[in-house]
Amino acid sequence: MMYYAGNPWDGKNNWIRPDMMVDVPWDGSYPWRTTGVSSKMPNADIFTVIIDPAIPDYNADSTRLAGKASHTYDDHNLDCYASHQADVYTLDDGTKCSSAYICNHYMADDPPKKDPPKSIRTTKPSFSLMTVDVEQQVNAITNEKFTLVDPYDAFHNIFDDIHGPQCNSKPYPIGDSCNIIFNDCNFVDLAGYPADSTAKALATLLTESAGPAISKNVTNWKSHVYTGRYSGSFNNRKFTYPQNGQITVYTELEDVPDSVATQSWIHYEIKCQKAGFCGKACQGVASAALAVGSAPQFAWANLLGVVIGGVCTQCA
After folding, report:
1. Which of 110, 209, 234, 238 is deepest in the core (most CB within 10 A)?
2. What are the tens digits of pLDDT across the range 255-264?
3. Alpha-carbon distances of 289 from 118, 122, 126, rounded to whole Å
4. Helix or strand run (H / E) with residue 83
5. Cα separation of 247 and 252, whole Å?
6. Given pLDDT bands bounded at 50, 70 and 90, which one contains residue 176?
7. Can you give the pLDDT at residue 264?
8. Is the Cα torsion angle 55, 59, 65, 70 positive or negative in sign?
9. Where are the alpha helices (DSSP H) in the chain?
């Protein structure tokens, strides 16, 4: 379900990127139906669409509307009409759609628009209960140097991985056999909060909070190996990471119950060829919430400096 604040086409009649977009979960039935379907947009606005799929496309020979749509921000109903043709719409990932229902105010005669409720944004970092150790062993006799990536630099890779409203999900080495992957990202455009600013702010929050906290949990030790005539001395270093984590921005409408919506997020995962996962859930979890105020006064730069404590290291 895509939302456009203005004209959805450019000067060449090509679709442009929507202001907001949300997936309509599959519940076993075709979503565009006479019983209706509702979805919550990233700004917490709830859209409800009622469609009769049996009505043909709107044209000079058939002027029947396919349905109606409404949303919680104002009292305007939207008229919906069908359009079935090859490549009627192209998604960001290149998927071609052969059918679409377009709902707008152009044909509707409804009450005047009212001001939407004020939206409040909250940012919440959360990390998994499971941990993974990223280790390296080097030769102490030859004074071999560690090449283990510092956690701050590991998370800083997110800046290279961001690609438009999503991430590339590229693996970045952080040890001899471990990678960090930013495998699920979403950044939305909202008034005063362009997607690139959202992405940079969340990347900064993740890097500046998780990186230093995990760096403090470094473990260093020496080991010796004796096998017959051979003996060796080694230096060892280990960083303990939450196996996965996510930074999420939620939007909530002021004085509107149950209006919390997920706006943007960055999710990462640590994958190792030989991972020392804890057998059971850790006893502690790193989690914090930061209320960041409401638009338009809020500046994304205020996200800096958040400290995430208690990174999960103790296992039952």
Report:
1. 209
2. 666 667 777 8
3. 20, 7, 9
4. strand 78-90
5. 17
6. confident
7. 83
8. positive
9. 151-156, 158-161, 195-215
Encoded amino acid at 150, one letter: D
What share of the chain in percent tops pLDDT 90?
13
Q: Read out DSSP for 264-295?
A: EEEEEEEEESS----SS-BS---B--EEEEET
Structure tokens at 16: 């442009």
Indicate the pTM of the whole model. Answer: 0.55
Phi/psi for 154 (5° steps) reads -60, -45
The token duo for 29 is 């039935």
Going by their DSSP bridges, the two strands 230-242 and 219-227 should be labelled as antiparallel
Render pLDDT for 261-307 as a digit per residue (tens, 0 to 9): 777 889 999 988 753 333 222 222 222 222 333 223 323 223 322 22
- Amino acid identity at 66: A
Residues 313 and 127: beta-carbon distance below 8 Å = no
Question: CB 77: neighbour CB atoms within 10 A?
Answer: 16
In angstroms, the CA 199 to CA 274 distance is 32
Mean residue pLDDT across the chain = 74
Instruction: Return the closest-CA partner of residue 158 out of 210, 94, 214, 92.
Output: 210
Distance of alpha carbon 268 from alpha carbon 207, whole angstroms: 12
Cβ neighbours of residue 110 closer than 8 Å, sequence gap 6 or more: 75, 76, 77
Q: Locate tokens 């941990």: which residue?
A: 131
pLDDT tens column, 40-59 = 887 778 889 999 988 988 87
Q: In the predicted model, is pLDDT for residue 121 greater than 70? A: no
